[in-house]
């Protein structure tokens, strides 16, 4: 049974995307910067499993399929409306991907997909829309296979943009229930310290977007000893 907070967020997201999902990809390409670079940099090993948290319309998973045709694809989203669009996309483009309705901050990958670990997990512009975003990072890392990695792209602090643009952008994003996570780097550093993982963190477009890669040690890595 869904927890009240998760059920409320699912209802909110369904309301937001019930109509927007039909034009989502067309409009978002102009301001969700860095998504394609993240996908191109996944470097999925042959036959590796890839999980997207907050897969939305399936646009990103379809692009992963183009870049890494032998990858095994999985995705979850809390919005039933978005998943219906994603499933139609997978069928239309003949992409073999397993999709599930679930809360990205608290899910059981084994129960959802029959698989507990994935070589690559990624989150594209979803943390800024998930209230328990720190828990989502932890949940994502929990299902990364040893030696695998978590990849994130999202809105940054916009620290090198003009103040008027930054404040206007944030007001506009808030209207869509989007809140940039200004302490993202610190949260990732904390998780890395707990797990003996390494972090690469980059800011681009004058701070408009950030991209992070958390690499978990392999089983025989000396950091685990």
From TrEMBL:
EC id: 2.1.1.-
CDD domains reported in the protein's UniProt record:
AdoMet_MTases
What Gene3D superfamilies does the annotation carry?
Vaccinia Virus protein VP39
> InterPro entries per the record?
Methyltransf_25 (IPR041698), SAM-dependent_MTases_sf (IPR029063)
Q: Which residues form the Methyltransferase domain?
A: 50-148
GO molecular function annotations of the record: methyltransferase activity
**Which organism is the protein's source?**
Nitratireductor kimnyeongensis
What PANTHER family does this protein's entry cite?
Answer: TRANS-ACONITATE 2-METHYLTRANSFERASE-RELATED
Q: What is this protein called?
A: Class I SAM-dependent methyltransferase
Biological process terms in GO annotation: methylation
Q: Which UniProt keywords apply?
A: Methyltransferase, Transferase
Extract the signal peptide range. none
């Amino acid at each position: 049974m869904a927890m009240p907070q998760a059920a409320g967020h699912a209802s909110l997201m369904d309301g937001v995307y019930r109509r927007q999902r039909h034009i989502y990809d067309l409009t978002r390409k102009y301001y969700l910067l860095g998504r394609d670079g993240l996908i191109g940099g996944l470097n999925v090993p042959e036959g590796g499993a890839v999980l997207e948290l907050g897969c939305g319309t399936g646009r990103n998973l379809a692009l992963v399929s183009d870049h890494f045709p032998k990858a095994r694809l999985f995705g979850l989203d809390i919005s039933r409306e978005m998943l219906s669009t994603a499933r139609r996309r997978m069928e239309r483009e003949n992409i073999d991907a397993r999709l599930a309705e679930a809360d990205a901050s608290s899910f059981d990958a084994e129960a959802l997909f029959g698989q507990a670990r994935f070589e690559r997990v990624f989150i594209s512009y979803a943390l800024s829309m998930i209230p328990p975003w720190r828990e989502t990072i932890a949940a994502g890392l929990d299902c990364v296979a040893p030696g695998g990695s978590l990849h994130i792209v999202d809105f940054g602090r916009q620290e090198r943009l003009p103040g008027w643009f930054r404040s206007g952008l944030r007001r506009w994003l808030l209207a869509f229930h989007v809140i940039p996570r200004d302490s993202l780097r610190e949260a990732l550093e904390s998780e890395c310290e707990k797990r003996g993982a390494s972090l690469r963190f980059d800011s681009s477009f004058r701070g408009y977007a950030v991209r992070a890669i958390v690499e978990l040690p392999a089983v025989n890595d000396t950091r685990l000893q």
